[in-house]
């Protein structure tokens, strides 16, 4: 990677989220917990999700995580947790869909900054296929934890 590529890939906002991650640390209560590993680079995340409200219209009360790995992966977890906390599951789906589509675009989609906030800084990684998995891993972990959380909410309402 050239120094120009590194400059466009690692922005100040990424370094800030890496050094001072938001919502890091595993917390209770939670309905869903998942552990994901990126075998190509060794990044890991354990993510917990806590939902409140009725099963047909839940709200993301908390996203907590423990992430190890590269700065891109850890910053992505921080940005994602900050974006999704307090959102309805429906709104969170819009946010995560938009982010993941932009990451899959290989730099052709600049992303909707209004929708994905600070995570727009991660989109530079979409030009580097090896980095996409690092950035998207926390978002995939969120989706898996959401499945568990919704199942637990449904069982609690039954």
Automatic annotation (TrEMBL):
Listed Gene3D superfamilies: 3.90.1010.10
Source superkingdom: Bacteria
GO molecular function: iron ion binding; iron-sulfur cluster binding
Domain NIF system FeS cluster assembly NifU N-terminal: 10-134
CDD domains: IscU_like
One Pfam family of this chain: NifU_N
One biological process term in Gene Ontology: iron-sulfur cluster assembly
Entries under PANTHER family matching the protein: IRON-SULFUR CLUSTER ASSEMBLY ENZYME NIFU HOMOLOG
NCBIfam families documented for this protein: SUF_scaf_2
Record protein name field: Putative iron-sulfur cluster assembly scaffold protein for SUF system, SufE2
Organism: Brachybacterium nesterenkovii
């Amino acid at each position: 990677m050239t120094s120009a590529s590194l400059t466009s890939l690692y922005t100040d906002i990424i370094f800030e989220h890496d050094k001072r991650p938001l919502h890091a640390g595993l917390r209770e209560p939670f309905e869903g917990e998942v552990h994901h590993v990126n075998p190509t680079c060794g990044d890991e995340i354990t993510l917990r999700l806590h939902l409140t409200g009725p099963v047909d219209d839940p709200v993301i009360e908390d996203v907590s995580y423990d992430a190890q790995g590269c700065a891109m992966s850890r910053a992505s977890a921080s940005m994602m947790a900050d974006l999704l906390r307090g959102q309805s599951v429906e709104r969170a789906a819009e946010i995560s869909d938009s982010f993941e589509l932009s990451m899959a675009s290989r730099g052709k989609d600049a992303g909707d900054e209004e929708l994905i906030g600070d995570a727009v800084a991660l989109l530079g990684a979409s030009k580097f296929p090896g980095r996409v998995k690092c950035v998207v891993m926390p978002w995939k972990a969120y989706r898996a934890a959401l499945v568990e959380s919704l199942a637990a909410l449904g069982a609690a309402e039954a």
